[in-house]
Every structure is written in C-alpha cells, then in structure tokens.
Amino acid sequence: MKKGYWIAMVDITDPDTYATYVAANAVAFQKYGAKFIVRGGRHEDPEGSTGNKQVVIEFESYEQALACYHSPEYQDAMTIRLTASTARLAIVEGV
C-alpha cells in the first residue's frame, strides 16, 4: 500500500497561538499514526516564497492522511491554526 503525505508551507503570523495549534493537533496526529518527516528547520526559497515553516507528515496510507484531515480532532485544531497562520496544504499519495 502506498503511503500518504501532508505537505504544508506555512506563514506563521502569531507564534504563541500557533504553539496552541501544535499542542491541539497532536491528538489527531497520534490517532492517525502521523510521522513527521520535516517540521521546520533551515530552508531556502529559490523559486519564490514558501512561508516561514515547511512541514511533511507521513501516514500509512493516502486514506489515513485524508481521514486525519477530515477528523473532528484535526478540524478543531485547524480552527486555531487559521487564526495564527496562512498555509498551503497538499495531501498526496506516495510512490
């Protein structure tokens, strides 16, 4: 079975509130077996802005990745994120 991934490029505008989001999203990520591959760190934007934080999260399957996003646990956490950042998120199936 192919793995599923969240790929996010985030501009954090309120770091304190964003920290609250990180604590809140842990419930969904634990429930759906999320594994962080990339969570911030040094980066370069050679082809245009990609935000001030990049994240790649691996799931056991594409279906698990979708289920996590649509779960009540993540949707609750996302309401916090939306007040503290803007993001571009793709949910993709791996190779």
Major β-sheet, in short? 4 strands, antiparallel
β-strand percent reads 25-35%
Low-confidence stretches: none
Average residue pLDDT: 96
Range of helix content: 40-55%
CATH third-level topology:
Alpha-Beta Plaits
| Series of H and E elements | EHEEHHE
Number of domains: 1
CATH architecture name? 2-Layer Sandwich
What is the β-strand count?
Answer: 4
Strand arrangement in the largest pleated sheet: 2-3-1-4
Give the terminus-to-terminus CA distance: 10 Å
Q: Name the structural class.
A: alpha+beta
Please count the helical segments.
Answer: 3
Radius of gyration: 13 Å
Task: Please give the CATH class.
Answer: Alpha Beta
Query: What best-fitting shape do the alpha-carbon axes yield?
Result: globular
Oligomeric description of these chains: single chain
Describe the 3D structure.
The chain is of the alpha+beta class. It has a single domain (4-93), classed as 2-Layer Sandwich (Alpha-Beta Plaits). Helices cover 41% and strands 32% of the residues.
